[in-house]
Amino acid sequence: MKAVLTLHDSRRYFLFLSHPAPWCDCLKRVRSEPVSDEGFDWFYASAADRSAQIRTPITDGAAAKPWVFRPKDIRAWWSELHYNRPGGVESGTQTAWGPQSKPIWFTETGCPAIDRGSNQPDAVFDPKSSESATPHFSRGWRDDAIQRAHLEATYLFWGTPANNPVSTIYNGRMVHLPECAASTWDARPYPFFPELTGVWADAPNWRLGHWLTGRLGAVSLAALVRHLCLRTGMPEARIDVSGLWGAVEGYAITALESPRASITTLSRHFGFDAVETEGVIRFLMRGRGSVATIAPDDLVAARDGDVLELTRGQETELPQALKWQVARADEDYDAAQVEARRITVDTARIASESFPMAVPPEEAERRCRRALMEAWVGRETAAFRLPPSHLALDPADVIGLEHDGRLVDLRLVSIADAQARGIEAVRQDRAVYDLPPGDARAVSLTRPIVFGAPEAVLMDLPQLSEDQAPHRPFVAAHAKPWPGEMAVLRSATTDGFQVLTTFGTRTRIGALVTDLHIGPV
In this structure, what are the phi and psi dihedrals at residue 474, rounded to the nearest 5 degrees? Predict the structure, then answer.
């Protein structure tokens, strides 16, 4: 079967109607939805219902077999008897299908590398086609991470024995994963495909398409951080990377450094925090929603000082521009520079940083802009104290603080527990974490020159001048590309060849379409 089932129903990043979760929770939901939500519990009866998230439950009336209409209910379809329904009425005779009689193979599974690709995995973006489409609510941005999350969700879910039962008829599981095929692997060599658009007409479609070529070798940010933590000897049970999102095409540790230093570099680039809570080191992307609202009456007054201290940093202490250097996996890991800049500010400082990782330049530009805007928004800091009743708050949590008649989002940076909880926080703007990527950049590839065997012709022609030996033949050769010079070697046996002569002129070799006329050439 072709597994192109919807695994997600994502809307605007921080304005979901059904579940107010950021994209860092997307993988959790995608992993839980192969047998839930759209196509299993409910469906959208129209495009208008989809826009308004009016969900119609999937039912089957008196027959009470809703699995018949559930595209995702593979387990029920595989384990139940089948009956035709001519005219909508169930037949009393079962079909030839026997429950659990055959394994299921996914002949094609995956989703495009486009924003919200898992909303509609079979959507194909092709400007040259009348059937070109982007997934529901997609903004048309490139997103390699959602494609990887979709594949991880599919293979991890069906790879769990509890989700994939063993047949009582044959010796195997319901879904035979070794024969399932991910879409799409291309035999054309990367990065020449897709960069040589003059050679392949479909090359521009790779950027937002289903292709795994050039992407499958990337590692998820969560897996990389988990690996670095395990290198320190931390027990896996004490590491929680489920809140991380993103993909890394390559990461180089170029010097002797601790795993913590490597993780710190990743956190600056991707924008995440690490916090110890309940005996677990939890890694969380920034830009999450508020978990609590704090009113002025909730604050605890200190013996000395104000109840609430708000500080705003000077513009001259902040950078006007931020420059990052990364590597390009599609350009033999050559360096690429991205820049973010503010225009109307009273500062001329320029900050720069080099990251030993390979990421697409458009993604690096997005994260560079996020880091610059994060610095400017975060120049507003707050310090206050909360009572022990707010013990559930952890560093990296976001709260809404009521101040001067408005609600200000603050991300908690540190918490000091005593009789009251001393809080230090920085201002957060969620829009900073939902920026579009930069423009795609052309790749400058060095095309290798391969010299093939030349087309050589020996010709026994009349002696054209006195300085030519009458017994020697003429030789002509053609090759494309032309190496510049050809050598003629001779030997009386099959080895021991010696150079007879060389020549550097390429000859035109062809066939006459008509007879050659009599006369001088």
Answer: -100, 150
pLDDT, tens only, 316-351: 899 999 999 999 988 888 899 999 999 888 888 999
Provide the residue ranges of all domains of the chain, joining segments of one domain with +.
2-208, 219-285, 292-433, 449-521
Going by C-beta distance under 8 Å and a sequence separation of 6 or more, which residues neighbour residue 61? none
Contact 398, 412 (CB under 8 A): yes
DSSP element (H, E) containing 154: helix 144-158
Beta carbons within 10 angstroms of residue 45's beta carbon: 11
Task: Name the residue with tokens 């939901």.
Answer: 29
- Predicted TM-score (pTM) of the model is 0.80
The one-letter code for the residue type at 125 is F
Measure the CA–CA gap between 393 and 380, rounded to whole angstroms.
20
Q: What Cα–Cα distance (Å) separates residue 441 from each residue in 279, 328, 330, 331?
A: 44, 11, 11, 11
401 contact partners, CB below 8 Å, separation of at least 6: 293, 294, 382, 407, 408, 409, 410, 425
C-alpha angle with apex 344: 354 to 433, nearest 5 degrees? Answer: 50
Instruction: Tell me what pLDDT residue 63 has.
Output: 85
Q: What is the mean pLDDT of residues 502-508?
A: 92
Q: Beta-strand (E) ranges in 69-209?
A: 108-109
At which residue do the structure tokens 């921080």 appear? 14
Residue 325: both structure tokens together: 């250097």
Return all residues near 387 (Cβ < 8 A) that are at least 6 apart. Answer: 298, 300, 420, 421
Token output for 342: 């503010």
Residue by residue, DSSP assigns 246-309 as: -EESEE---SS--HHHHHHHHHHHHTEEEEEETTEEEEEES-PPPSEEE-GGGSPPPSSS-SEE
Task: Report strand pairing: 334-341 vs 321-328.
Answer: antiparallel
How many whole angstroms separate alpha carbon 412 and alpha carbon 401? 11
Q: What is the DSSP letter of 175?
A: B
List all residues 6 or more positions away from 344 whose beta carbon is below 8 Å from its beta carbon: none
Closest CA to 356 of 250, 436, 257, 437: 250
- AA letter at 449: I
C-alpha 357/C-alpha 287 separation (Å) is 23
Burial zone of 501 (CB within 10 Å; 0-12 exposed, 13-18 middle, 19+ buried): exposed
Whose CA is closest to 425, among 458, 403, 456, 452?
Answer: 403
From CA 174, how far away is CA 73, in angstroms rounded?
A: 12
What is the Cα–Cα distance from 380 to 401, expressed in whole angstroms? 13
SS3 241: strand
pLDDT tens sequence across 25-35:
455 555 555 67
Q: Which two tokens stand for residue 337?
A: 């520079």
> Could you tell me if 38 and 44 are in contact, meaning their C-beta atoms sit under 8 angstroms apart?
yes
Count CA within 13 A, CB hemisphere, residue 256. 0
The Cα-based distances of 435 to 139, 367, 399 in angstroms read: 11, 8, 22
